[in-house]
Amino acid sequence: MKSVLLHLSIKTIVKIKAIKKLSMVSSIKVSNEGLAIHNENSKILLDPSKIHNDNFVFVSHAHSDHIYKKPKNKTKVKTLVSKETELIANARGYEISNPIYEEKNLELIDTGHILGSKGLLAFNEVYYTGDISIRKRGFMIHQNKIPKVDKLIIESTFGKPEFIFPDPKEIVHETNQIISDAYEKGIPVIIMGYSLGKAQLLVDLFRHWDPFYVSDSIENINTIYRKMKIPLRDLITYSEAEKNYCLSKKPWIMLSSLMTGRSKFLQSLKEKYNAITIGFSGWACNPGYRYMMGLDYAMPLSDHCDYNELLEVVENSNPKKVYTIHGFSEDFARTLRDLGYEAEPITNGHKKKETTKSQKNNKNANLKKIKKNPILDSFFG
Ligand SMILES: [Zn+2]
């Protein structure tokens, strides 16, 4: 009898422990506050667009679609963020509330997307990648640390097989050839990428060309990068070059934010100086991109993972459940399910509904989105 009772009580203890362990397990929730990791003691909002008074928030990097608007009043919100992201965000007119750079059970992991970009490993159970790139480009060296977790929240901007990027070395070689041919004919070249992240890479990759001018807004960000020990060369700003009549002395190279060839600024440079344009974006894998943007050349250089690299991240993380977010989240989740993973697409604000077949067939939907939202940094990929 005694041994039966003992057996029962051990069983009960084991059961209680199992329940307790289960209640500690983190869950992923989406509400009108945004995407969050919950467990019984805490809630962490991931890259929310708005904050409320008592939130605990993680900001992965300083691109506009990952960072909250400056709150109107002082808040008690705590923001887990890297020092680089805090500096860049504040310089761009955002305001990081009560920044903290470390927190127990939460680890920030370099994601190689832009300077200061981090993923969040929470409680050794959940990894949120934010935007991620696992390839070496210029001064961006990713440590390739992908934690093994139960739940992976992965960006899926380029989560379709047609988005496989060439080696960045090939892109640099091809671009140098275009610039060299143009210089021989005395033709100026305007190179373009989004202003935070891609533009600084382009300064680094094409630093040997002279004279090298840069738009004033990009130079402001370059200054922040230099403060953070990224050795970008000094460049002459567009306004200085124009004031001193430098642009009429051709050829030259100029770095500008990515815009369509139909913009007034580019039109005037093309008419006045006969300049050619080269845009850099992962979307350039789509042959229609160059025409849609009205560019002379489009190069598939991205700060995101391509399709194969996204699969590599999932494989290395070996999760029980994958949540896909941004870009081709539905397609990528479907691919993962076909490979045997449990996978579900989500958005920042609500669970994503699967699209209909006709919507699915609209290959250019994301490109159209870019055209409509030219200010969204990451859409320029
Ligand atoms: Zn980004």
- The CATH superfamily of the largest domain is Ribonuclease Z/Hydroxyacylglutathione hydrolase-like
CATH domain class of the largest domain: Alpha Beta
Return the string of H and E elements.
HEEEEEHEEEEEHEHEHEHEHEHEHEHEHH
Distinct ligands, ions and cofactors found in the model: zinc ion
Domain count, please report it.
2
Catalogue the unreliable spans.
Answer: 1-6, 8-23, 350-376
Write the layout of secondary structure elements.
Elements: H1 2-24, E1 27-31, E2 34-38, E3 43-46, E4 56-58, E5 78-80, H2 83-91, E6 99-100, E7 106-110, E8 118-122, E9 126-128, E10 151-155, H3 168-184, E11 189-193, H4 198-205, E12 212-214, H5 216-227, E13 236-237, H6 238-243, E14 253-257, H7 264-273, E15 276-280, H8 288-293, E16 297-299, H9 307-317, E17 321-325, H10 329-338, E18 342-346, H11 357-360, H12 365-372
Parallel strand pairs: 3-4, 4-5, 5-6, 9-10, 10-17, 11-14, 11-15, 12-13, 12-14, 15-16, 17-18
Antiparallel strand pairs: 1-2, 2-3, 7-8, 8-9
This protein binds zinc ion.
